[in-house]
Design goal:
This protein is an all-alpha fold. It is 66% helix and 0% strand. The chain has helices spanning 9-24, 29-36, 40-47, 55-64, 69-79.
Length: 80
């Protein structure tokens, strides 16, 4: 078994939370990608855990989903 974070259950929960948040807002992968200045493959690979997010990527996605700084902090606190 590997210790890579993309295989970690907590990491997968973070990704599922992001995906759920995007879906609740009715935003497609393509629309989120446009907001991020990325290709839709970037979002797709992130959501299938083929691409690993760092903290900057995570914050950029949360901002692209139009969360306030306070909401971002709440999201991050839940990760602890």
């Amino acid at each position: 078994m590997t210790n890579k974070t993309i295989f970690n259950q907590k990491y997968r929960q973070i990704i599922e939370s992001l995906k759920s948040l995007r879906n609740k807002q009715g935003i497609s992968q393509r629309e989120l990608a446009q907001r991020l200045g990325q290709t839709h493959c970037y979002v797709g690979r992130t959501e299938t855990c083929e691409r690993r997010l760092d903290i900057i990527d995570l914050i950029n996605i949360l901002k692209a989903l139009e969360l306030t700084d306070k909401e971002i902090m709440k999201f991050l606190e839940k990760l602890l």
